[in-house]
Structure to design on (761 residues):
């Protein structure tokens, strides 16, 4: 009979052997059986918003047995834009990348169509708003899946006190904190805005609407053009800028520009935020980012800011909407996993969590998702985001629509609309001369 | 005698062959040492340059070869010619002021006592040492539309505010000023080094001949510095023509495209508007302009060097 003697050394050897074997054999079999997936998301500026997105993705990855890598890429300094351009050229990089507004159309040939994903998602969530479809389905096929993070409205953010004191406008009577817009909101027209702009300018609190070439500027004036029925190029690609509607919009813009800050022509996307936060301005057109920063840096300003729809014009009330998307590169080696993740992130539950994490900044592209409670609860002032999501009386729009995608993209990114206004206001061009200049620019954009 | 000559010839041949072998080995070592740099230049300069040429011949969606159609298209655009004009104004204006200021500063520093000179040299180099993207942000804050520090100072002195970045002509001035502020120290240090190498005897001879300070500058300093001025101007012209960060940060090309230079407009078209072939065309347009300038300036430098070598011989 053999007598076993367990020495300290043999115990340690045995234990380490078991540990190594356990690590090799005991690892859950097929933990990443479904392969790898690499995702580049937009780096949200709201602290903590990325964490919720990461958690949602990790939950999905654990369930699907995917080895998931997530990068958050900021849009500051065009980093996301440059990453997209580089990966498109190299045909290598992430499987999924976040793309805003025009980019799914720009890279349509290099993106995996997601009609199959969108068919199921639309069946569950209902239709998207028209801007999401116009930008995400540029050639009759869905080229990207609408993303909640980053999608935003750019309506006015007004100072309740300054509008009331200097312009006699009670914005809360139009857009109350506890209910839908009242009939008084019918009076919120572009003419009313012009009159208020004049009064606030006289009082030393000009409206902070920029005339520069960046997105905020283009979106605001784009919604004005739409409200006047002015289009630069129609859906068939015909140049239609020379019209009475354009003249009327430019006449109006000229009048309004006289009451804007003297250097509005040099404004970028941060200028209007600083203008509001400084307490100098009575109104800007912006998502709630300016207000959120004011909550931290100038709480006395933030508690008087109210977000509400854009004014109405002769052709209706057009609300600027800018969607983000998640797109799958055609060279992605794991398209099925990518589609599965995007379907997971497109559920109502996921969108609601993402909106809450963004403190109400994000506006999902699905019309049925505009009723999340986050927007009613955010403050101070409580309810400031109550009227931030799209309302039924608004027509969501993006500047340069309805032109064919490749032309509209040029109009938008080269800021043809604001440059027309700037040529009149600063360059001394007549309205007809500015229109003639725009016609020449548009002819250039037609290049195939 | 004949034998001695034969031995001498053989030794000479051996020596020459040994010398030739040594030279060949040295050349091989030199080539191997340069190889990493050659690979880097090929990978990061030559390949992208040829790739840009390739991109410039494609259509907007990069699916079809269109030859020189993109260039032909550009030549018909009003904005393109405006950008050409602005790039020339920006580069030539900035380089002229950088050269003048650098020249004056170099003389001032050169005349300082040796003890204090090092500190002044260091301080004057600071703008050139700070990464331009960072220092330009500080300038932007000084020009910023709503909170301009410069306007605050002007207001304190009772002057009206200036739309530094809102008025096209002020904006052009603003971007040139920052480029001059950033680049003048480079000229200063180059000129200072050249000044230190001018033989003191030349000034002494000129003084004996009765030359005043102005005449010494014109007839001694400038001819002696001419080559370094030409090379510095050439290098600076190339870098200034290709400038991106200053214009991008301060004005992004606005207002009304009136401060765009080639690089910022190429970025606007190629990356922001997603028309990479047209953006590549704009950026390639810098090449012939700079090539032309380089040929003329370097030819002049070469001629002068030969003249000086002739004088020395």
């Amino acid at each position: 009979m053999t007598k076993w003697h367990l020495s300290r050394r043999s115990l340690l050897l045995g234990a380490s052997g078991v540990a190594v074997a356990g690590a090799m054999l005991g690892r859950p079999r097929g933990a990443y059986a479904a392969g790898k997936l690499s995702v580049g998301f937009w780096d949200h500026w709201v602290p903590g918003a990325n964490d919720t997105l990461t958690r949602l993705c990790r939950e999905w990855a654990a369930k699907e047995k995917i080895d998931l890598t997530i990068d958050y890429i900021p849009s500051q300094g065009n980093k996301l834009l440059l990453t997209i351009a580089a990966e498109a050229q190299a045909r290598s990089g992430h499987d999924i990348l976040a793309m805003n507004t025009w980019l799914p159309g720009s890279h349509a040939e290099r993106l995996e169509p997601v009609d199959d994903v969108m068919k199921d998602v639309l069946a569950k969530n209902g239709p998207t708003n028209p801007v999401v479809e116009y930008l995400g389905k540029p050639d009759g096929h869905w080229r990207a899946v609408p993303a909640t993070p980053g999608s935003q409205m750019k309506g006015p953010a007004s100072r309740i006190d300054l509008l009331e004191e200097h312009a006699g406008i009670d914005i809360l009577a139009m857009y109350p904190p506890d209910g839908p817009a009242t009939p008084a909101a019918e009076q919120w027209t572009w003419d009313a805005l012009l009159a208020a702009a004049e009064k606030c300018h006289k009082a030393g609190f000009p409206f902070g609407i920029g005339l520069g070439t960046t997105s905020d500027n283009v979106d605001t004036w784009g919604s004005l053009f739409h409200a006047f029925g002015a289009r630069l190029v129609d859906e068939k690609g015909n140049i239609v800028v020379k019209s009475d509607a354009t003249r009327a919009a430019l006449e109006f813009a000229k009048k309004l520009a006289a009451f804007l800050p003297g250097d509005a022509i040099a404004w970028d996307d941060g200028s209007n935020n600083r203008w509001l936060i400084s307490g100098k301005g009575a109104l800007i057109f912006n998502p709630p980012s300016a207000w959120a920063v004011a909550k931290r840096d100038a709480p006395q300003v933030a508690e008087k800011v109210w977000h509400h729809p854009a004014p109405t014009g002769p052709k209706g009330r057009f609300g600027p909407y800018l969607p983000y998307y998640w797109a799958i590169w055609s060279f992605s080696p794991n398209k099925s996993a990518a589609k599965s993740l995007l379907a997971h992130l497109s559920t109502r539950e996921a969108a609601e969590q993402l909106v809450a994490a963004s403190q109400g900044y994000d506006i999902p592209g699905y019309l049925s998702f505009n009723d999340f409670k986050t927007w009613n609860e955010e403050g101070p002032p409580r309810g400031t985001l109550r009227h931030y999501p799209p309302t039924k009386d608004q027509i969501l729009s993006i500047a340069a629509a309805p032109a064919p995608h490749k032309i509209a993209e040029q109009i938008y990114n080269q800021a043809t609309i604001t440059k027309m206004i700037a040529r009149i206001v600063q360059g001394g061009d007549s309205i007809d001369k500015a229109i003639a200049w725009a016609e020449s620019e548009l002819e250039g954009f037609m290049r195939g | 005698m004949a034998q001695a000559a034969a031995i001498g010839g053989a030794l000479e041949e051996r020596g020459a062959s040994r010398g030739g072998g040594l030279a060949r080995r040295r050349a091989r070592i030199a080539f191997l040492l340069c190889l990493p740099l050659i690979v880097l230049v090929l990978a990061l300069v030559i390949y992208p340059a040829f790739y840009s040429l390739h991109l410039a011949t494609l259509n907007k969606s990069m699916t079809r070869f269109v030859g020189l159609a993109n260039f032909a298209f550009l030549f018909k655009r009003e904005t393109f010619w405006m950008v050409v004009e602005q790039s020339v104004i920006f580069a030539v204006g900035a380089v002229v002021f950088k050269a003048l200021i650098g020249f004056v500063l170099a003389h001032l520093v050169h005349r300082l006592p040796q003890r204090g000179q090092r500190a002044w040299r260091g301080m004057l180099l600071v703008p050139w040492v700070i990464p331009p993207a960072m220092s330009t942000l500080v300038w932007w804050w000084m020009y910023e539309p709503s909170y301009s520090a410069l306007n605050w100072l002007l207001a304190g002195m009772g002057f009206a505010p200036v739309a530094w970045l809102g008025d096209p002509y002020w904006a052009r001035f603003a971007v040139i000023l920052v480029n001059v502020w950033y680049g003048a120290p480079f000229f200063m240090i180059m000129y200072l080094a050249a000044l230190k190498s001018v033989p003191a005897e030349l000034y002494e001879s000129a003084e004996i001949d009765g030359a005043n300070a102005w005449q010494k500058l014109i007839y001694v300093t400038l001819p002696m510095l001419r080559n370094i001025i030409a090379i510095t101007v050439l290098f600076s012209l190339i870098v200034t023509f290709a400038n991106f960060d200053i214009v991008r940060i301060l004005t992004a090309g606005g207002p009304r495209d009136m401060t765009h230079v080639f690089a910022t407009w190429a970025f606007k078209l190629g990356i922001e508007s997603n028309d990479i072939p047209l953006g590549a065309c704009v950026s390639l347009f810098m090449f012939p302009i700079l090539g032309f300038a380089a040929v003329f300036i370097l030819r002049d430098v070469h001629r002068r060097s030969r003249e000086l070598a002739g004088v020395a011989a």
About this structure: Chain A has two domains: 36-152+322-377, 153-321+389-445.
